[in-house]
Automatic annotation (TrEMBL), chains A, B:
PANTHER family: 2-ALKENAL REDUCTASE (NADP(+)-DEPENDENT)-LIKE, PROSTAGLANDIN REDUCTASE. It comes from Corymbia citriodora subsp. variegata. This is Enoyl reductase (ER) domain-containing protein. The keyword Oxidoreductase applies. The keyword Oxidoreductase applies. GO terms for molecular function: 2-alkenal reductase [NAD(P)H] activity.
Amino acid sequence: MEVERKEWILEEYVHGGVPTSRHLKLRTTSVGVSEDDVPDGHVLLRLHWLSVDPYLRARMGSQRDGLYFSPFELHKPVTTFGIGEVLQTKDSSFSVGEIVLNTIAPVSEYCTVPADALKKIKLGPDSGVSALDYLGALGIPGFAAWIGIKVIGDPKPGENVFISAAAGGVGLVAGQLAKLKGCRVVGSVGSDAKAKFLKEEIGYDDAFNYNVETDFDAALSKYFPDGIDIYFDNVGGRMLEAVINHLNTHARIPLCGMISQYNQVWTERFGVRNLLNLVGKEARMEGFLLDWNRFGEFVEETTGYIKQRKIVSKYEIYRGTESFLESIQSMFTSSNGGKVIIQVNDDAKA
Amino acid sequence: MEVERKEWILEEYVHGGVPTSRHLKLRTTSVGVSEDDVPDGHVLLRLHWLSVDPYLRARMGSQRDGLYFSPFELHKPVTTFGIGEVLQTKDSSFSVGEIVLNTIAPVSEYCTVPADALKKIKLGPDSGVSALDYLGALGIPGFAAWIGIKVIGDPKPGENVFISAAAGGVGLVAGQLAKLKGCRVVGSVGSDAKAKFLKEEIGYDDAFNYNVETDFDAALSKYFPDGIDIYFDNVGGRMLEAVINHLNTHARIPLCGMISQYNQVWTERFGVRNLLNLVGKEARMEGFLLDWNRFGEFVEETTGYIKQRKIVSKYEIYRGTESFLESIQSMFTSSNGGKVIIQVNDDAKA
């Protein structure tokens, strides 16, 4: 038996600007869904939810753009984290009907993947977490926030923490983690509504709209009269430079990603002129990726926070695999509030 | 009894360019050298040797240049590390004729300072170290090299280490420390003679002249086919940017100072465009100053290396306090090879 599926293919690397239909093509194919169609050690999934994250844009550039993330292969499906239901399995650790996390999910309705790409997740009324949490606070964004705040930033109570792209999937969790450590937390966002949301619903001490307060130096003077101890950087560029003029001694800058810089080839990116200040301030700037050795520790700690409602989530949900290109483009226009997710099927359960 | 002395005064902050006679003035005064001229808890010294270091330039800019080092006070003497002989003392821990290290020595022939600005040093035939060592490998440059390599860089045997301004006071020691840790060490310098010197006399694995190999990207590809694990940055700017394109995963960049950037106000400094690479390479860039809590540990370890001839030194000696302005200017023209020192008196003993 075969079913029709759509999937997004990277046909051309994006050397500058936002990905368009020139780079990403929606292809319709069919896939066998009988037990015989699944190779040994593999699992066939029907996908329910897919994670859309800024780093995917970085993987759509080639090495010559100096992005230094492993690029997607050309003419192959783009992959991300997804939640799906096991339709067929040739691996005994999984069973039909089980809901699993797929770390290399194509943007598609169906996929067949090696079992070791899947992670078991605990759902159900007693678990206290939802399937969506595994793409948000318990997924890539939450894990990035946890590494950046806990491992790199190592906040002390009372420290001043600044988070850019603070209403995005990563920023939302990062701010809440810093609050849980007893810090004062301020975020920058792209709209007044998001600033209001962070203050009223997420517990940020303050937030500002960088499209309105465009003099970043003045904004940082206003929101950080005592300087910045930790800057969780999601944007890079002009904001990063402005922050470096407001650092306290021994400040830390976890570099999570730089969404303002992904759409330029590297020679056209913003040049940060004040790195010399890091010397006098004895400050540390440190890039990080996800350290899978610590995934278990992260899940355990964060699950506890979610159950106790100490970390809350917000999602921006796009419908259908067709919406992938639009959802990626939306990342670069400040239009989203919350973690961006694609609901693949109408009957997907959160 | 009074003696005549000259001393250098900072009359105007240097907002751009190299310090000139407009900023630094040589003033002649007289100073009392009788016991009665020395306040309680103070010591009167006749200075023999003075340390001239690039960071002094940074302290000659005001805060608005964004240098973020504590600036010298206007209309006051510029101070540095110096070696001198006790002429009079009103502090019982020191005795007349003793040779001491003065951490706030004016660029002058005589000075009266609080006893707590002095550090005792061990000299003489049995000590295995010279007075000059206390301004070099055992002084500010050596201590900076030790913190940057040992504390921030933490090299593993076999790692690839790159050192800029490698024939300067700091670079000389930093390279030798990295070699002692079993690393492969390459330096950049401003002349062929210095490159030869590093390779033949200091034990660097290789060195290149950045005035000849002006395509830094090509030079780094050539000298670091396996990438860079530690970059000890003394220069900043264009070299720092080039290095960031050659980093290995988990690379460390101790930021010691940025001599290429001191002479510009911050908005005119070189903008580093590829900080995004730090994310994908999980690399760390960290500024540091001298951590005096570790001075004892540093002196003990480094004294051992000097006695065993595992760390060797080279000095560029200027004569007389009058030469201070010229010696500072020389730092920015690649003309020095080795640690720059002023011999204050003709009878000063090394």
